[in-house]
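User: I'm new to structure prediction. If I give you an amino acid sequence, what do you actually give back? Let's try with this one:
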Amino acid sequence: KSANPQWREQFDFHYFSDRKDMLDIEVWRKDNKKHEELLGTCHVDITALPTKQTNCLELPLEKHPGSLLMLIAVAPCTGVSISDLCVCPLGDPNERQQISQRYCIKNSFRDIKDIGFLQVKVLKAVDLMAADFSGKSDPFCVLELGNDMLQTHTVYKNLNPEWNKVFTFPIKDIHDVLEVTVFDEDGDKPPDFLGKVAIPLLSV
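Assistant: Good question. You get back a string of structure tokens that encode the predicted 3D arrangement of the chain. For your 204 residues, that looks like this:
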């Protein structure tokens, strides 16, 4: 019930500088659980923004009245990584020992915001649903923790894909839930949902 909403939400996207990415933003209005209406869109060219500083942007909505006020910072990622199993960040015993020391009881209050991190090895999926007419799927896996999101590559024409990737997330809230979703890539169309699992951090 507001024409001037304030969300004050922070989202972290993992941007790789060798790509020409646009940040696409959509604003939606929700009447009830079933009816939604698009109120406008805007786009931000990430490559045009100065790095290592917070950019305050007022973005007019295209073809609709209104604008969005956003703070966007392009900065090096800390604590986030994607790697292959053979170069797993915690594979080195010396590194494991350093991390154990960093998060031991006596160092708990040294940096209150440094809660820890989560490492997830996404190995494979088995017996996925066939989403294509050929009886196959083009699956990829999306991992979400809080407002952080990472994803695997797509394995084409396969119901038993093997990704063998290692994902590392910084933990910002110990009560967060890791959500792992498998989608079928469908060209220019939105991906098809193939399944999902939710894992509370407190259960790990």
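You can read the tokens as a compact description of the fold. Here is one thing that stands out. The mean pLDDT is 86.
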